[in-house]
Amino acid sequence: MRFNKINVARLALPEGKNEVLVFDETLSGFGVRLRAGGKKTWIAQYRIGSKQRRMTLGTIEAVDPDEARKRARSVISKAQLGLDPQTEKVEARAQAAITLESVAENYLLRAANKLAPRTFAETERHLRKHWSPLSELPIQRVRRADVSARLAEIAGSNGPFAANRARASLSALFSWAIGEGLLDSNPVVGTNKAIDETPRDRVLTDDELSLMWRHAGDLNYGAIIRLLILTGQRREEVGGLRWSELRLPDGIWSISAERTKNGKPHDVPLSTLALDILQIQYKREERDLLFGARDGAFQGWSKAKEALDRRMLVAMQNAHGEKAKLKPWRLHDIRRTMATRLGDLGVFPHVVEAILNHISGHRAGVAGIYNRAIYAPEKRAALQKWADHIAALSGGR
User: Do 376 and 256 sit in the same domain of this protein?
Assistant: First the structure.
């Protein structure tokens, strides 16, 4: 009997039997399993060596006879070639359980102790937030097209630089997964960056620093901008500044390893001008953070900078006419500017690197293992000299 909808529907379980197999006469190994209760299931039966295997192909209600026959023929053909379809099915299920999300969790557990705190936080954010739409995909089924399409979405919602960072985080995860034997290729390789990035070398002029200082404002952002100028530290370090990090009587700001990009604790001597700014900040009860609102550090960087840019542009146009233009700049340019101008003021490179918390260049090797206070007097003198320079530019304000 060749199976079709009519004759399969007529098949019945003999009285006294709980299960019986009925096979198609035109395709060896293709059959129907009848069970008590009326359930009928397509099967493919084959032999691998001395062992007999049986593979379920679906119920007769869900799969029509022609499709079931096609599936059975594929299973039996593989078996004749020495392959085991049942083992392949088990392996496929196991691989399907290894999703991008599960691999990302394992990767983050191992990366937590290897990456600098800030780098780890950014990596975690990218993998859990930006790549969440692909999280349930088996990692072996993530294709380059999937990655590329998601990168375009990230660039549209968060900007091209965020897309580039998310791309780098995902690529690092896949490289790790290859090393773990979970897959053989990295689907991020060959995708396009949202924007080509080139190292910035923008150094602000004295006029720009003066304009920035004078129009920074009197709220949180104004204090942050002036502290960025005076200390040369990173945006997140100043925006997340805590009262517990400050020793104002000693003129020291101690940043813990958890808050620095390189994971190294860092002491910043505070100039008299920086101390003036810190001492007038309002200390809120049960809140360690100086800046920001609620439970978090300062937020709203983009809007605050746009407002500052507008104020600076108005001041320029008032002074030089409506054709005056403000040259584009970023907050990180302040840090680069201070490093460059300290050199102009006669500060030695190793002292500049100590101020910036760089363990490279002059501080690499043996010098890099010295106690973080080794250049404390030199750092203090350099930052005071810089503060005096800024005070002169801003008219003593």
Answer: yes
**Under the phi-then-psi rule, with left for phi > 0, alpha for psi from -120 to 50, and beta for the rest, what region is 380?**
alpha
The answer to whether position 198 is within a domain reads: no
30 phi and psi, to 5 degrees? -95, 125
CA 303/CA 294 separation, integer angstroms? 18
CA distance 267 to 355: 8
SS3 string, 244-286, reads HHEEHHHCEEEECHHHCCCCCCEEEECCHHHHHHHHCCCCCCC
Q: Are residues 350 and 216 in the same domain?
A: yes
For helices 220-231 and 376-393, the axis angle rounded to 10 degrees is: 120
Q: Enter the tokens of residue 50.
A: 């001395």
Return per-residue pLDDT of the chain as tens, 397 residues. Answer: 899 989 998 999 888 889 999 999 899 999 999 998 889 999 999 988 888 888 899 999 999 999 999 999 999 898 888 888 777 776 667 666 789 999 999 999 999 888 877 788 899 999 999 999 999 999 989 999 999 999 999 998 888 889 999 999 999 999 999 999 988 999 999 999 998 876 778 899 999 999 999 999 989 999 999 999 999 999 999 999 999 999 999 999 999 988 888 888 999 999 999 999 999 998 888 889 999 887 788 988 989 999 999 999 999 999 999 899 999 999 999 999 999 999 999 999 999 999 999 865 444 443 444 445 568 999 999 999 999 999 999 875 5
- The whole-angstrom separation of Cα 370 and Cα 394 is 36
Q: Are 121 and 220 part of one and the same domain?
A: no
389 located within any domain? yes
Please count the structural domains in the chain: 3
Query: What phi, psi does 29 have (nearest 5°)?
Result: 95, -10
Same domain membership, residue 267 and residue 125 = no
Q: What angle do CA 293, 297, 298 make, to 5 degrees?
A: 75
Strands 252-255 and 19-23: unpaired
